[in-house]
């Protein structure tokens, strides 16, 4: 890591359970501080975003999503988004992980930029814990 003399301080609010899980991982992995762990997490997020930006051309893929089904209006919003992308969604599987959390797996096929747009629309809502798009290029 290169040292940057131009550091910025930020303040963030996190649910207690999220911070506790983060601290456990930091301790397990031997980070010297929360700041270093947060910097590493941000670098990973940026790398993933750049990788997602390269998803182009005809692709086959899967979107995995974990969300809180008790979040107000979230199920309706997810359904509306999925209907907007019915042309690229080939199948979906819904599983109740706990009383509150659901896992959804969505099989997709189409232009990579459209697959990425669907994943990004899904991840932008309160109550969605995680969304991951994994694709492969269609070789001719």
From TrEMBL:
What single Pfam family name could you report for this chain, choosing any that match? NikR_C
Q: What does the record's cofactor remark say about binding? A: Binds 1 nickel ion per subunit.
Kindly list the positions annotated as binding Ni(2+): 83, 94, 96, 102
Q: Which GO terms describe its molecular function?
A: DNA binding; DNA-binding transcription factor activity; nickel cation binding
Report the family membership: Belongs to the transcriptional regulatory CopG/NikR family.
Database matches in NCBIfam families = PRK01002.1, PRK02967.1, PRK04460.1
This molecule's function is given as:
Transcriptional regulator.
Question: Would you tell me the protein name for this molecule?
Answer: Putative nickel-responsive regulator
The protein's organism comes out as Methanoregula formicica (strain DSM 22288 / NBRC 105244 / SMSP)
